[in-house]
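Per reviewer request, we include the raw input and output of the structure prediction for the construct analysed in the revised manuscript.
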Amino acid sequence: MTENSSNFVSAPSSVEWLYSNDPKKQLICLKSIRKKLSKKDPDIENMLYVTSRVLELIISRNDSEGLRECTWILTNIASGYSLGVDEILKLNGTTILKKLIDKTSDNIVKNQCFWTFSNIACEDEQCRDHVLSLGIFHSLITFIKEIFEENDEDILKTCIWTLANFFLPKFTSLHDDYCKLGLKMFIKCFRHSNQILRKEAAFGILHIMENRKYIDNIIESGILNDIRTELEFEEDTKMLSCMIRIVGNLAWGNDQQTQSLIDNDFIYVFHKLLYTEHKELLKEVIWTLSNIAAGNRAQVKAIMDGQIFPKLIGMLNDENFRIRREAVWVINNSTQNGSSEVIVHLVKLEVLKYLTTLLDDDDHEIVKACVDSIFNILQTGEMYFKDVNLFAILVDKYGSLKKIEHLQFHKSWLIVDKVLRILESFYKRDVKEVPKI
């Protein structure tokens, strides 16, 4: 059999050259194994036995081509497969890879090593902490800085993805030093011209934001202007969804953090995004608006001034349950926290008619939000009108009152309690006289 034998390269069980002392034969075999493991749904379990030999070759070989093949193989072995991760750990593979990172000058080899470490770290929190204990995080940060200066976009994309995996929400939040270093790097890369790199950086920012203590760091970085620009012109739905969730988390913060979005003209962007055809994206936008509406009066007024309500109220009748639920929460928060000016504006847009249709909804949360909203509107009407509460008349006109009376017998006591308060406070009804249905 020759080195160029096609039978050897294609035969799935032929790995004898891997154990040869001839570097050329080793390389041919390494390439063959790498190709098998790079296919869709590779049979990793039946290839685990090569791990020990591949690690031996990492120690013995000095050529970039061979080391690239070896580290690529290990990356595939550790990719989402627990037994593969266990095998590398059992053979002290992480220590071998760390030494390789320290000694090699080949950026592709380093990148592949970091990729392998990322796959290992993603396995579970114990694996992540083991990788961190080797100093991989700081080595990766140093490497990213070097690659950033060289502007090697392909390697940079992989490295930022790798860095983001250390902050996955399923794990306990990292120490403050790690988070601040990571956030600083993600923000820097988010301003890069490469779209894919910006996306990976955005997910890194989102992961770190799971710990809300870093929201102010994000605001102070000045990145909100960049995020707003991306939201205006980005077309990739995954990227848009990620950035909207970042903004939604900001809106979920205190009044000052929420105000930073209004000050950076995000309401205008949200108005445009309300017309997206992507339902999941739309749900995220409305969720963000509900967070803003949970703020103070001035922030609810900013939603009104941004012409959000006309489009949003129509969504109360959307066929998508999740859209309806998010939309009704915006209305509920707005009636709870908004001024009488906002509530009058909502009534003029016939919000009571739309809320009436939702009183029959199967979802208890939607019904409760509707009842709460109607109560808030009626309460405002008592203060707004001197003699007759015109809002109470409108509730009856739209058929809400009859439905509200029926809700006295709802399964949810939270709904029943608010219904009784409506009937007793605004209609002077003796609730005992309402017939049970």
